[in-house]
Amino acid sequence: MIQEYFAAADAVIYALFALLIVLSVMSWSAGVLRILSTRRISRELSSLLPSVKSLSLCAGDWQRSAKLEELQTQLQSKLGSGLGLIAVTASTAPFIGLLGTVWSIVKALGSVGGGAGLSAISAQIGEALIMTALGLLVAIPAVMLYNACVQINRKVFAEFRARLLALASQSPAFDSSAQATDPASGFAP
Question: 44 lies in a domain?
Fold first, then answer.
């Protein structure tokens, strides 16, 4: 059935179709790798804490703050990798599908002017609808993946922050007033 709609497709439609498929595969791959990596990072949080314990040995508050900031930056960098591709896919896929839709409708309207029959026009309209659906089928899971990854990142960062504060309460020389930033937005909570 889908082959009938793409029988009259041109290079633009095939290129847009291929681009959407590639974006979908890449965003799913990035999402799965991101989730697996975040789980690994969550398990390895304990390995970061011994270096945090050394903060109490630092000579001054500025050294402790610098080390804390460095650890938070490292964690944010690890948690944020791969999210850009998922976000780009989520935001551009509907427009790529829309471009395919518009392209097919323009071809269909050109066929009407050329005296084409209903079967030729219906195939191009079907092609347009398939491109719209494909754009949405690529974008919606990418949005869901992005949101899931951001929520998981926030939980991991909150766990890291809680462990830091627990360590701080055990160490009188540790400054627990240092402000952490939200890994998803980069702003202080």
Answer: yes
